[in-house]
User: Fold this.
Amino acid sequence: MEGWFSRVLHVAAGLLLVPFVSGSGIVSSKSICAEDGSDGEFYSFYIVPQRSLQATYGAWAPFLQKVEEKTDLCIRPVIPDSIPDFERDLIAGKADLAYANPYHLIMGRKSHDYRPLLRDGSQQLTGLLVSHGNSDVNTIYDLEGRTIALPAPNAFGASILTQLALKKRQINVNTVYAGSHANAFRSVVVGRVAAGGGVNNTLKRESDSVRSQLRVIFETKGHPSHPVIARSTINNDQAQAIITAIQDLAKNPNNAKLLEAVQLPDPVPATLEDYLYLANLPWNP
Assistant:
């Protein structure tokens, strides 16, 4: 994606508008399997890039290394440049495993029969619209005729649910796509748009310097959180090993920060029934 989001580093009040690295994102070559000389098969684990590539990799790499240790599976983290790039790779069946939004599961199930393994059970996912704390945008109705930044067209909570909410209320806005939740938030902070879309989980994990300048002006109803999903290249025994490994990690209080960083503080088994209702658009956000 070209445009000012991908071309410009914008620094304001000590804040960085983070562009995605051009090319193929981050594909890690680091793995226990590589370190111990194993010739075992690598399984790709794609992560939807809600935050910057660097922040996403920093959260997920140590977590997946723990999963490797407990399962003896060789897992390679892959973080595409943007959410649309993630979607294209998922639909193409490139991901053996993925951390995806609920709508991505529906998309992936149609193309390659992806199935959910785990999700966070501690809270539901909600879509948010945020404005700058010093702006005149105090409610969703103040957005009439204004410009908003959303991560990507199929970002479930941040884009789909918020746009459904705007449509339901007959509020007309101009929309630009920022590529990630982090860029949508930062575009609000630096004053380029009147509001930005995100979700409760990404806003919660933003830096204090960003979060303190944002005001939540609208929050959608809750939905099941992002699942860890698997393709048929992951057999049932492997899938169960991954579920058990992640739940075992959650039993150790020393791993709380590790799980919090990947938005799985309370990993519970997920089923297709948790998400199938999302195939019937439109919802009532």
Remarks:
- Residues 259 and 265 are 5 Å apart (CA to CA).
- The radius of gyration is 19 Å.
- Residues 1-23 have pLDDT under 50 and may be disordered.
- DSSP finds eleven helices and 14 strands in the chain.
